[in-house]
Amino acid sequence: MKTKPNPHSIGIVSLGCAKNLVDTEILMKQLEASHFRLILDPGDNDLLDTAIINTCGFILDAKQESIDTILQFVEAKKTGRLKNLFVMGCLSQRYKEELLKEIPEVDEFYGVSDLKQIIERVGGEFRSNLIGERYLTTPSHYAYLKIAEGCDRSCSFCSIPAIRGNHVSKPMEQVISEAESLIRQGVKEINVISQDTTYYGVDLYKKRKLPELLSKLASLPGLEWLRLHYTYPDGFPLELLDVLNNHTNICRYIDIPLQHISSRILKSMKRGMNEDETRRLVHSIRSAVPGVAIRTTFIVGYPGETEKEFEELKEFVRTSRFERMGVFMYSHEEDTAAFTYTDDIPAGVKQARLDELMEIQEGISFELNQARIGQLVKIIIDRKEGEYFIGRTAIDSPEVDNEVLIRAGKDDLVIGNFYTVQIISADQFDLHGKIHE
């Protein structure tokens, strides 16, 4: 006799960025309150009444991952392992009509603001008293805190404003309340996120309020690490740097996507800054905050990017020696200003440029890591894999940055606890350490 799916089981898949993950966690908290059995990232052997996929629709690779995931669950539906399939998030917000035609097996597509409709559609009850509460899917010691939705920028390559709408800041008291709730749940490390964190407060308070918000968050009892993501170069509030210096629990880490260094490319990208202003900002950050780690990203293969402009970018990376860096190939996206340009850089050239830039960064990262050998550093333990405990330093964000590997000994370490470690060896992206007695 064939086993039927549990009528109260819901499988959840969250794709894309940390901002998407927060949306998923809010949904899961509501579903939990309606007594559903939740399975995060269900496997082939899970029998489900319903699956909900929170999709990403930002760039081509992310869209393809979302489509592939949807199709996997369509197959599960065909074989009887799944009854209902719902898709939400950026991809379905952006391409709902096309998806309805191409994948009719999906029972319903929802946008980025349809939380209440989704909950009611699966037979749950939306509870307004749970607004701000989340079902944490990260390890219990760290979490992401989203301080705003949407974006008022008009970067030529970015479709987020078309998907998520204009920038809307959360009231400061709500952000503080959410942080306090996370700390009560055992969270020791909070990573502040939004599409543009440095714009926080302009809509509500008529001025940038991120420095004040960070100061208040850093003052909350029980918060050991506070890390800042997704700052925007144009209009970067330099008083924020004083806040980093004034609070020991704010990580000396600034995530600031610069995207390029060529003034012509930056102007075409509508980034609001030129080469000189970008260099001055990097210099100001480094001068004001001793030991700061800058994480940045760049785009290669933007329409019209010449070999000379790419060489300028390579030289900028060499001389700036960023502690953390990522590179993306330009993705030609509908509903963006750059979509009207000719996507004239061949895919092979884009890939080669990405590889070249990352090769330079690997060398820089190796040298910076080698310089840490012998140092004592504070780390937090995230997990255990095989014979190693895996941790991070204060200048490493979860999942995207370097890790510290510690061979398990006679004394087990506790996941979520802080330890002082001596670095004994290093490679390009990982450090190896031993517990300092």
CATH architectural grouping of the largest domain: Alpha-Beta Horseshoe
* Share of helix, binned: 25-40%
Beta-strand proportion: 15-25%
User: How many domains is the backbone divided into?
Assistant: 3
Any idea what the CATH superfamily of the largest domain is called? tm_1862 like domain
Q: How many β-strand runs? A: 18
Low-confidence stretches: none
Tell me the radius of gyration.
22 Å
Principal-axes geometry comes out as globular
Q: If you consult CATH, what is the topology of the largest domain?
A: pyruvate-formate lyase- activating enzyme
Task: Note the main sheet.
Answer: 6 strands, parallel
User: What is the SS-derived class?
Assistant: alpha/beta
Strand order of the largest sheet: 6-9-10-11-12-13
- Mean pLDDT comes to 92
Q: Give the termini distance in whole angstroms.
A: 59 Å
CATH class assignment of the largest domain = Alpha Beta
Number of helices: 13
Label this structure with key terms.
alpha/beta, Rossmann fold, pyruvate-formate lyase- activating enzyme, OB fold (Dihydrolipoamide Acetyltransferase, E2P), 3 domains, 6-stranded parallel beta sheet
